[in-house]
Amino acid sequence: MKINISENPVELGKASASPAIKGIKNAIAENGQANIILATGASQFETLKNIVLDQSIDWSKVVMFHLDEYIGLPETEPASFRKYLKERFLNLVSALKASYLVNGDDDPVEECKRLNEIISNHPIDVALVGIGENGHLAFNDPPADFDTESPYIIVNLDEKCRLQQLNEGWFKSIEEVPKQAISMSIKQICKAKLIICSVPDARKAEAVKNSLENQVSNKFPATVLQTHPNCIFYLDKPSAALLKNL
User: Fold this and answer.
1) CATH number of 2-236
2) What is the residue extent of each domain of the chain?
3) Per-residue pLDDT tens for 198-230?
4) What 3-state DSSP class applies to 50?
5) By C-alpha distance, which of 187, 141, 155, 167 is closest to 70?
6) What value, to the nearest 5°, has the Cα angle with vertex 178 and ends 176 and 184?
7) Which end of the chain has fewer beta carbons closer than 10 Å to its terminal beta carbon, N or C?
8) pLDDT band at residue 94, thresholds of 50, 70 and 90?
9) What span, in angstroms and rounded, lies between the C-alpha atoms of 57 and 52?
10) Is the peptide bond before 143 cis (omega within 30 degrees of 0)?
């Protein structure tokens, strides 16, 4: 695990996009195809922006998987992660070889089965992730399931997670925030050859400290990234403010 600290979110986005682009291009060169995971949310704005701006990636050789999605939230809603990825990524790059979005409108059990079958045949080369204010990784809120082998699972969202979504402006009231989601599991995320974890903003400082300085525990789900052999945390100065020994 490595840590990179930038001055601000804009510089963080430039820094984090660089190894992601390199990882995608290397996978294409070595295997003829790159399999990637994309996260959503405010933490990914600048990283995705810089990846989209790059002109050197052959997107026709890229397969994209979606990290998580609310259950029962239509794609037409502002908070839909499918809507987010289409507007901020899919509509801005040339056609991918394939993209697998999580459909939270369908039967969630069947949707997990569908995605689990597909991703089992696609070893992940590069995963872009963030961490939540409660330390979650994807929508694996504490205490997260560190043991399940299922790639996609149904999860319950805790109050702190739901309040974060409200406070970021995705919803008008806490009642609107769904209580369940389909999320990529902890074990599946950690199978990625390269993990780029982008975490800007002072409101994430406590979660960053807990994730990097606490012992690995499902009470702080993102601590599992400490065990990954090729994970890079990209922080800005506000999000890194509580870290010791830097």
Assistant:
1) 3.40.50.1360
2) 2-236
3) 999 999 999 999 999 999 999 999 999 999 999
4) helix
5) 155
6) 150
7) C
8) confident
9) 9
10) yes
